[in-house]
Amino acid sequence: MRADVTIKGAGVFGLSVAWAALARGARVRVIDPWGPGAGASGGIVGALAPHVPEAWNEKKAFQLESLLMAKTFWADVEAASARSPGYARTGRLQPLADVEAVALARARAASAAHLWQGRAVWEVVDETAAGPFRPDSPTGLWVRDTLSARLHPRQAVAALAAAVRARGGEVVAAGPEEGAIVHATGAAGLAELVSAKGRPAGQGIKGQAALMRYDAPDAPQLFAGGVHVVPHADGTVAVGSTTEREWHDPAATDAQLDDVVAAARAAVPALRDAPVVERWAGLRPRARSRAPILGPWPGRPGHWIANGGFKIGFGMAPLAGEVLAAAILTGEDRIPEGFRPEASL
Questions:
Q1: Which residues form the FAD dependent oxidoreductase domain (predicted)?
Q2: Selecting from 3.40.50.620, 3.40.718.10, 2.60.40.10, 3.50.50.60, what CATH number does the domain 5-85+152-201+288-344 have?
Q3: Which residues of the chain have pLDDT under 70?
């Protein structure tokens, strides 16, 4: 097969571009010598959560559209691959510390009603509405939003790679680079952008996370004690993550992860006796602009970039893949100005 689009990197951004390009009739090859999900996309947390509904901007609007299309996106992936990505729109709870936090949360409820177009809710709830799997709250009140969702990153990437193959795409360790070339290589790709342009496009930020054995498949994700707590469908709960700009070994876990686990146990009574069954660490690509990097590689005709999904990559990926595939194959340009490579170079 001679490819119309070659994608370097089989993380969630690269595979989402491949999936969208296949839907437009392109012949697609994804190349990754380490296999799907070898980098940050092979993590364990999987919190698909929106930014707060205020100070609206193009990044938040893009994220909203992508989160709203996620249910259909992942359902189509599961149907094509016969593999579950672990997706469910289970919502999120956050404790409210004091009366000021309660007042702010109620003000945001009004802005969410407008900005989220009535398609999701941000509200203040008591313990009856919060349910049994919840963090402690000094006020006895929580913010609940119905836009947040969860998936299992490894399972989602495996399902997406299988779906790409099922639709006729290639996902291979090596092969010819033909057609439009998309660079979706995560932290390593950001380093390449730095060296190519002489200016920092971003950096890999180390994150550590853990899986705990606790069965709450239908419970909402939580944000409390400075950590994300994400129940998965397989009887585990993920907790994370650290944010480390300096590190010696990107794959090693240490006492900083112990602190994350301790914070989760302190905040969520249900987890206090839950055992840790896995520890994970890896580098997540954060662009200098703090937004994803999407678009043509400046000065390299025929080359494109899909990178910078730090913390929000899985939430942004459905729309990021669609927008970049459209730009490559039809010239349709829906890339937000703040996402273009020039914003990070």
A1: 4-326
A2: 3.50.50.60
A3: 195-197
Q: What is the pLDDT of residues 305-316, one digit of tens each?
A: 999 999 999 999
For the chain, give the secondary structure using H, E and C.
CCCCEEEECCCHHHHHHHHHHHHCCCCEEEECCCCCCCCHHHCCCCEECCCCCCCCCHHHHHHHHHHHHHHHHHHHHHHHHCCCCCCECCCEEEECCCHHHHHHHHHHHHHHHHHCCCCCCEEEECHHHHCCCCCCCCCCCEEEECCCEECCHHHHHHHHHHHHHHCCCEEECCCCCCCEEEECCHHHHHHHHHHHHCCCCEEEEEEEEEEEECCCCCCCEEEECCEEEEECCCCEEEEECCCECCCCCCCCCCHHHHHHHHHHHHHCHHHCCCCEEEEEEEEEEEECCCCCEEEECCCCCCEEEEECCCCCHHHHHHHHHHHHHHHHHHCCCCCCHHHCHHHHC
pLDDT of residue 323: 98
Q: Where are the domains of the chain?
A: 5-85+152-201+288-344
Q: Give the model's pLDDT for residue 191.
A: 85
- Give the pLDDT of residue 193: 86
**Which pTM was predicted?**
0.96
